[in-house]
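hey so i finaly got around to running the thing on Zinc finger protein ZPR1 from Glossina fuscipes. pasting the sequence first so u can double check i didnt mess up the copy paste, my clipboard has been acting weird all day
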Amino acid sequence: MSSHNIESVSTGSEAVDEILKKPLFRDINADDTAADATEIESACMSCFRSGVTRLLLTKIPFFKEIVLMSFKCGYCGFENNEVQSASEIQKRGIRIALNVQTRTDLNRRVVRSDYTCVQIPEVELEIPAQTQKGEITTVEGIIDRTIRGLNQDQEKRKVEHSDAAAAIDAFIERLQALKEMKTSFTLILEDISGNSFIENPDAPAADRNCKTVQFMRSDEENHLLGIYDKTDVAGGDIEQTCKREDNHLLKPLDDGAWTYEDLHGEVLQFRTLCPECRSACETNMKLTNIPHFKEVVIMATVCDVCGCKTNEVKSGGGIEEKGVRFEVTIATKEDLTRDVLKSETCSLRIPELDCEVGPSALGGRFTTVEGILLAMKDQLENGDLMFHDSSDETTKERLQKFLRKFNDVISLKTEVSLILDDPAGNSFVQSLLDNDEPDDKLKIVKYERNYDQNEELGLNDIKTENYETP
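ok and heres what it spat out for the 3d tokens, dont ask me to read them lol
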């Protein structure tokens, strides 16, 4: 092989390595002139000859990962541009109910996916899921788009179907009344993918007019999202299915092949995707015991492409009989060093700052009080759910003022209380006393869950007695 060929091979290998080091989904950046677009040959839907489709995987704030697609036919000139969401489907669906009372509420920005069902009960309006593409809009924008859709072909309809046209005109007047805020109303977003969001104009303070509830999807909703379990795919006896080892990634272990003690001493690895850039990486998982508490599963992921590091903790046991609420007074350095296990169902609150963080915002993690505070601060500064607008000076100043107060808490200039509320009872805060009794700066309250909390945990539909019978 000549030296020229060797140099070409070396250059090609370096180019491949350079591509592999880049995140799969990259942020849109005006300085990035070398955006990598994938070109594939595809059929033109107009003349059915071959054209070229270009695919670009990128990230847009609030819409997360998307795929930009551009097709052009060199024969007939037909062009088609599409945007599809590539964001991860959340573990649960989400239902957001906003009580719209003022014009400020009309200007709230809304992110909704293709799978979002929009409802306004006061006017009996319902926009079913998958009838409109996902978009970033406002509450008023949703009403405007509905009015424009109803006005289409209205003149023709008045001639051919006068009664239907009159009913539509009356409905449009009701929608116009909502735009003019002649009456308050409720906007409901129900998204089975869990990727919808309504802006909180008072952030980081709690939203008084908006209620968010997560729910477990039904089998039909999972199938609509393309999620199937093993029984759905096999469509037969699980025991017989497991015997077909060549058709399934997960295979049953023989009795005694993997003991409980082996599991405690082993660090397991499995392939996954980076939560930031969606590149392939590995997650390490280990089952461990927290003294005086219970078993937990600790998972850590490190992405070699973008450098993202995440850690997550899941309870190794079931849901406790009662919920638990911890109240920690933060006044000294010792208070910041307390060990904290926050489960996925635990919410956080700092009453003195009027700050509240939902259970799914930070996920499950094993850290310290200081680590929890730093994670909350990072979520507020860099999280995608905060709308940063360079022209909105009021919002910027309010956020900066809040962050200054938060820094005073971390530097112990201000004494506050941190409240951890876990309906599942799977969270834990370390006591500074040797006998594990709560010290004078730690309050622990166990309480009975209400119906809504049991519903969110899926306990209302669980049959614990005589479950063998249908």
